[in-house]
Amino acid sequence: MSHEGIRFVDKEHAERESAENRPLPRIAVTPEKVRVLLTEGKGLEIDWQDGHRSAWTFAWLRAACPCATCVDDREAAGLNPGETKSEPAQPLQLFKAPPRPTDVKPVGHYAVSFSWNDGHSSGIYSWDYLRRVCQCSECTAHTAAGQ
Ligand SMILES: [Zn+2]
Ligand SMILES: [Zn+2]
């Protein structure tokens, strides 16, 4: 039983890894329109060339920063991109401003970078990465089914 179980888990893991690394079609990672809803404080929206539409809140994007430091921190904490640690309830709560970019810049033709209001700015969000972490109901249902 345990042998079967271990093999099964390994196979699942390998399949998930290969799905994550599979190249996406070019039109799926090429934005048709990119909207940064900065004044509304809402988030980022991308219409892709294949007709798909993605949207992320700034809080989600900040918690999904793809820089090496943030990736390491998330791995150490066992968090997925976009997830944050739930802070234990404390009698003294420090007010933290919600994540919001102070600047947004294109990086070549392949990515966008944010300067966040907490001073962090090393994350380069490639179109490929953003498409892979699309938060629409269709994509998140697909991801959940694969876990
Ligand atoms: Zn980062
Ligand atoms: Zn999607």
Walkthrough of the structure:
- The chain has helices at residues 2-21, 58-62, 68-77, 127-132, 137-145; strands at 31-36, 43-48, 53-57, 101-107, 111-116, 124-126.
- It is an alpha+beta fold and 147 residues long.
- The protein has a three-stranded antiparallel sheet with strand order 1-2-3.
- The longest helix is centred in the N-terminal third of the chain and has 20 residues, at 2-21.
- The protein starts with a helix and ends with a helix.
- The structure holds zinc ion (ZN) (2 copies).
Question: Would you report the number of β strands?
Answer: 6
* Class of secondary structure makeup: alpha+beta
Quick one: biggest sheet?
3 strands, antiparallel
Distance between the termini: 21 Å
What is the gyration radius calculated from CA atoms? 17 Å
Counting H and I runs of at least 4 residues, what is the number of helices?
Answer: 5
Contiguous low-pLDDT stretches (5 residues minimum) are: none
The amount of beta strand, in percent, is 15-25%
The strand line-up of the biggest sheet is 1-2-3
Distinct compounds present: zinc ion
**Arithmetic mean of pLDDT:** 87
- What spatial form do the alpha-carbon principal axes imply? globular
SSE arrangement, N to C: HEEEHHEEEHH
What proportion of the residues is helical, as a percent range?
Answer: 25-40%
Gist of the model:
With 147 residues, this protein is an alpha+beta fold. The chain has 5 helices and 6 strands.
